[in-house]
Amino acid sequence: MRSVTQLISVILALCAFAIALIAGLAAGNPTEHVVGRAVAAMIVCQILGMLIGRAVQAVLDEHSEQYKADHSADQADQTEQSSRVEQPEPSIEAAPADTGERLAAA
To answer: DSSP H helical segments within the chain, as ranges?
Structure first.
């Protein structure tokens, strides 16, 4: 798969070429001038697209790193909690009340 930078630059360049070509021909300009201007627009927009693509790639990389850092901490907490064996707390039951029978027997 191509990088985001290449993808954005190519899409922007082809759109600029198509728009310049259609607009020039629709305006009735000579074909040689239209194609020359469309190619120039394509080159300029590809350079701009590369700059925009680099900025987008940097944002995506930063977000991805932050997401991984946040979720690796959550996953470590879950793993730690699941690895602990829960031991039941000792229950203290009340002893039956002494009715004095033991004292009398002694």
So the answer is: 4-26, 31-83, 101-105
Could you give the CA distance from residue 59 to residue 34 in angstroms, rounded to a whole number?
A: 37
Contact 14, 49 (CB under 8 A): no
**Residue closest to 42 by CA, chosen among 70, 23, 16:** 16
Tokens found for residue 73: 């901490």
To the nearest 10 degrees (0 to 180), the angle between helices 31-83 and 4-26 is 150
CB 15 within 8 A of CB 45: yes
Spell out the residues 6+ positions from residue 5 whose beta carbon is closer than 8 angstroms to its own.
50, 53, 54, 56, 57
| Domain ranges, ordered by start, for the chain | 1-66
Per-residue pLDDT of the chain (106 residues; tens, 9 = 90+): 478 899 999 999 999 999 999 999 999 999 999 999 999 999 999 999 999 999 999 999 999 999 998 888 767 666 666 666 566 666 666 656 655 555 555 5
d(C-alpha 14, C-alpha 103), whole Å: 102
